[in-house]
Structure formats: structure tokens, C-alpha cells
Amino acid sequence: MNFDFSDDQKQLRDQAWRFLAEKCTTKHVRQVHGGMGFTWEFDCHLYYRRSNALALCLGSMSYWEDQLIDRMRARNASAA
């Protein structure tokens, strides 16, 4: 199996990783600041809401992963 990514596949892969990083980061930041009682004094809740809104507008991580997998399968099928 060939894992050399084309440019559009690299963009899809990066987009999926961005969503994962943003969701994990905002989740942990809210957890830490919420545990200290500072969630509303800082902008943690705004980043969390923004992350959820972006996932709804631009597609979730699973959407981008599916796009990447479909393109990789099509590329491998055409190469075989």
C-alpha cells in the first residue's frame, strides 16, 4: 500500500488533525480551568463553542478522515 500523499490528500489529513487538536485542547482547557473555577473568567468557554461551531460548519474530523480515505482508495484503485 502506498502512503505517499498528494497535495489535496495532505490538506485533508491536516484538516482532520487540526480538528482533533482543537477539540482535545479546548476540552482539556475547560476541564482544567473549570476545576479551578475560572471557566467564565477566561475565554475558555468561547474557544470551546468556537470549536464546536467550526465542526458543524466545516465538517467534523470524521468527515475529513472519510474524504481522505475515499481519495486514497480511489488513487490506489487507479494505480493497481
State the gist of this model.
By secondary structure, the protein is mainly alpha-helical. The protein has helices spanning 7-36, 44-58, 61-79. The protein has one domain (8-74).
Q: How is this structure best described in words?
A:
By secondary structure, the chain is mostly helical. The protein has one domain (8-74). Helices cover 80% and strands 0% of the residues. It has helices at residues 7-36, 44-58, 61-79. The mean pLDDT is 76.
Q: What are the segments in which pLDDT stays under 50 over at least 5 consecutive residues?
A: none
Q: What is the total number of structural domains?
A: 1
- Helix content percent band: over 70%
For the largest beta-sheet, the strand count, sense and barrel status come to: none
Rg over C-alpha atoms, rounded to the nearest angstrom: 17 Å
Through-space gap between termini:
10 Å
Structural class: mainly alpha
Per DSSP E runs of 2 or more residues, the count of β-strands stands at: 0
User: What is the percentage of strand-forming residues?
Assistant: under 5%
Count, helices: 3
What's the shape? Answer: elongated
Helix-strand string: HHH
Mean pLDDT: 76
Question: What labels describe this entry?
Answer:
80 residues; mainly alpha
How would you summarize the topology of this molecule?
Layout: H1 7-36, H2 44-58, H3 61-79
Helix pairs in contact: 1-2, 1-3
